[in-house]
Specification:
- The protein has 20 helices and 17 strands.
- It is an alpha/beta fold and about 575 residues long.
- The strands form four sheets. Strands 15-14-13-12-7-6-4-5-2-1-17 form an eleven-stranded mixed beta sheet, sandwiched between helices.
- Strand 4, helix 9 and strand 5 form a beta-alpha-beta unit.
C-alpha cells in the first residue's frame, strides 16, 4: 500500500466533487472559469512573481538546512506547523532529517499556494470559491496522507508485521459497505440509552415532527415553557448528547419545562413537504402544543442553526398576525442575513439551485449522506483525512465520541423545503428584505419582530460565520444580547457549564459593525451557558409547581423520549 486510499462511496471525491474535481453546487456543478482565473493571475503577475521568488528562496534555505542536519550540524526550521496541527505530532516528523524536510517542503508549498490565491485579483465570491478549492488540494497533498511518506504509518506496519495494513484494509472495506467514513465507535452509543437520554415523552406527532416534553428535574419550574427548534438537517440530540454534555439536561435542571422538536427523517412518503409545512406544522404547532399542555399564555423559544432561520421566519409571521405569545427568543449559531454565509456559499450558484428546483421542488428526497459529505469536506483534515490515516493506514479503530456519533447520524430532507431554502437564503438572501418572501401566505418582515433575543455565535464557526450571525441583532426589532463563544459550530454551543471551559465575549452595546462590537467586548473565562440562563430567567414568568405528569388530556404521551423519529437512521 503505497498511498492513502481515496475515500470511496458517497463520501468519495465523485460524491462531493464534479467530474473535473470541482465541488458540486447545490444541485449540478460549480466551476471556475479557467480563462477568468488566468486573466486574474496575469493582472497580479508582479505580486505572484514576488511570491514565487520568495518561495524559491525558502526552498533553497530548506535544502541547506537539511544538508546541515544530515552532516550533524544544527539547523533552525524554515517553517513550522501550527501548534494545533496534529498531522505532524509524531516525533519522527521532527527527528528524521528526511521527514522533517518533507514536512517543511509541504508547509512551504501550502503557504505559497495560499498566498497566490490571495494575490489574485478576483471578486469576493470567486476568491472564496478558489480559496476553498485550494484548501482542498493543499489538505489532500499532505505527506501524512500517504503511507510511503508517513513515518508513523511505516513504523506501525513494521512493528505489526503488516497486520496494521491488513486491519486498515478491513476497515476500508467495512466503510465502503457502510457508505461513509467511521469517525467514532458506533457500538458505544445507543440513542435513548446513553445519548439523547434525558427523560421525557413524545406528546404530539404529525408528518413533519414529533414534539418531546422533558420530565421536570426540580420541584418548581419556570411558568413559561421553553421550546427548542433544532436544525432539520441534523438530528436534534446534538442538544442532548451524553448526560455530561447535554444542553437539554442543563435547561431542565435550571427549572425549565422543556420541549424539543424532533424533525422527521424524510422518506418518499413525506417528500412533498415544503417550507410552509415546516413552519406551520413544525415550529408553530410546537408552540401551540406546548402552550396547551402548560396553560401558559407566553413561551420562551430557541432556534439552532437552520432551526434558528426557521424560527426567525416563524417569529416574523407571528408579528404580521399580531400574535405576541413569544416572551423571548434564543438563536444559536444561526443566520437570518446570508450576506456572509461562509464556506457553504461555495456550493451554491444559480445554475445549481435551478437544477435542484427542477429535480426536487415538485417532490423528492435530498439524501442526508450527501449533505454530511459536504460538511465533512469543509473540515477535511479533521473529518476526512485524519480518519483515512488512522483507520485505513494505521489500522486503528476510532474512539467513542458522542458528537462524532451524532455527526454520522445524517438526516434526509424534503426536496421542496430544500429547494425553497437554497433559493431564499444562500442564493438570493431574501429573508432579510421586508416583504420579499411570504410564509404560510403572509409577507414577512424580520424588523417587525419585537421579541427580546439572545444571539449566540461561535468565533471559529465555518458554517455560520459569527459576523453573519451578528447581523441578527440589526435585523430584528427587539432588544438583543449578543454573545460570542469560542470554538466552532458545535463545540462553541456544546460547552457544558459544569466543565466551564473555553471563553466567551460580551458587550452590551450593539454597533452596526460586528468588528466594532468585538473591539469593545470583554472576554470572560468559562462557559456562556450560565450567562444565557441568567438572561432567560428574566422571562420566566415566575414559578409554578412542577407538573406531576407529562402531556395533557388532549395531548397524551405517545411513547418515551426521544421518540422513534430520531431513531430512524439513513442507510
Amino acid at each position: 500500500m503505497s498511498a492513502a486510499p481515496p475515500p470511496l462511496g458517497p463520501f468519495s471525491p465523485a460524491g462531493i466533487f464534479g467530474p473535473h474535481g470541482l465541488p458540486h453546487s447545490a444541485g449540478s456543478g460549480t466551476a471556475l472559469d479557467p480563462a477568468h482565473l488566468a486573466s486574474a493571475l496575469a493582472a497580479s503577475a508582479p505580486r505572484v512573481a514576488a511570491l514565487q521568488a520568495e518561495y524559491q528562496r525558502d526552498l533553497a534555505r530548506l535544502w541547506a538546512a537539511a544538508l546541515a542536519r544530515q552532516a550533524g550540524g544544527p539547523a533552525e526550521p524554515v517553517i513550522a506547523p501550527d501548534r494545533d496541527d496534529r498531522r505532524f505530532a509524531g516525533a519522527e516528523w521532527r527527528d528524521s532529517v528526511f521527514h522533517d524536510y518533507l514536512k517543511q517542503h509541504y508547509l512551504l508549498g501550502a503557504r505559497y499556494v495560499t498566498a497566490v490565491v490571495e494575490a489574485a485579483e478576483l471578486d469576493a465570491a470567486t476568491k472564496r470559491r478558489l480559496r476553498f478549492y485550494a484548501r482542498q488540494f493543499v489538505d489532500l497533498m499532505c505527506p501524512a496522507n500517504f503511507a510511503a511518506t508517513n513515518p508513523e504509518v511505516v513504523r506501525a506496519a513494521l512493528d505489526s508485521g503488516g497486520e496494521a495494513l491488513a486491519r486498515g484494509l478491513r476497515n476500508l472495506i467495512g466503510d465502503v459497505e457502510k457508505g461513509r467514513i467511521s469517525q467514532t465507535d458506533e457500538s458505544a452509543f445507543e440513542v435513548g440509552r446513553n445519548i439523547a437520554a434525558t427523560p421525557g415523552a413524545v406528546v404530539y406527532e404529525n408528518d413533519v415532527m414529533q414534539l418531546v416534553q422533558y420530565a421536570p428535574a426540580t420541584p418548581a419550574v419556570r411558568a413559561r415553557p421553553f421550546v427548542m427548534v433544532p436544525p432539520c438537517i441534523n438530528k436534534f440530540y446534538v442538544l442532548d448528547l451524553a448526560p455530561e454534555n447535554s444542553f437539554v439536561r442543563y435547561a431542565v435542571e435550571r427549572g425549565n419545562t422543556a420541549f424539543m422538536v424532533s424533525w422527521r427523517n424524510i422518506t418518499p412518503a413525506a417528500a412533498h413537504l415544503g417550507w410552509d409545512d415546516y413552519i406551520r406544522d413544525g415550529v408553530l404547532k410546537a408552540f401551540d402544543v406546548a402552550a396547551e399542555i402548560t396553560g401558559a399564555e407566553r413561551l420562551n423559544v430557541l432556534g439552532y442553526c437552520v432551526g434558528g432561520t426557521m424560527l426567525g421566519a416563524a417569529l416574523a409571521l407571528l408579528a404580521a398576525r399580531g400574535d405576541e405569545r413569544i416572551a423571548s427568543a434564543t438563536f444559536f449559531t444561526a443566520l437570518l442575513d446570508f450576506a456572509d454565509a461562509g464556506d457553504l456559499a461555495v456550493f451554491v450558484d444559480r445554475g445549481g439551485v435551478e437544477a435542484v428546483e427542477r429535480e426536487l421542488a415538485g417532490g423528492g428526497v435530498k439524501e442526508g449522506r450527501d449533505l454530511a459529505a459536504v460538511f465533512n469536506v469543509m473540515r477535511a483534515n479533521d473529518l476526512v483525512w485524519s480518519y483515512v490515516v488512522d483507520n485505513y493506514l494505521k489500522g486503528r479503530q476510532p474512539g467513542a465520541f458522542d458528537i462524532l456519533y451524532w455527526n454520522s447520524d445524517s438526516t434526509n430532507l424534503a426536496g421542496p423545503w430544500y429547494a425553497w431554502y437554497l433559493r431564499n437564503t444562500y442564493l438570493e438572501n431574501n429573508l432579510r428584505v421586508p416583504g420579499r418572501v411570504a410564509t404560510c401566505g403572509v409577507p414577512i418582515d424580520l424588523g417587525a419582530v419585537r421579541v427580546p433575543t439572545y444571539v449566540l455565535a461561535a468565533r471559529e464557526d465555518h458554517i455560520v460565520p459569527w459576523r453573519g450571525a451578528y447581523r441578527t441583532t440589526q435585523l430584528l426589532g427587539g432588544e438583543a444580547r449578543f454573545v460570542l463563544g469560542a470554538s466552532g459550530h458545535i463545540a462553541g454551543v456544546i460547552n457544558p457549564a459544569a466543565k466551564n471551559r473555553r471563553s466567551f465575549w460580551t458587550n452590551p452595546q450593539l454597533p452596526a459593525a460586528a468588528d466594532d462590537w468585538l473591539a469593545g467586548a470583554a472576554e470572560q473565562r468559562g462557559s456562556w451557558w450560565g450567562d444565557w440562563d441568567r438572561w432567560l430567567a428574566r422571562f420566566a414568568g415566575g414559578e409554578v409547581a412542577a407538573p406531576v405528569r407529562l402531556g395533557s388530556d388532549r395531548h397524551r404521551p405517545i411513547e418515551p423520549a426521544p421518540g422513534r423519529y430520531v431513531k430512524q437512521r439513513v442507510v
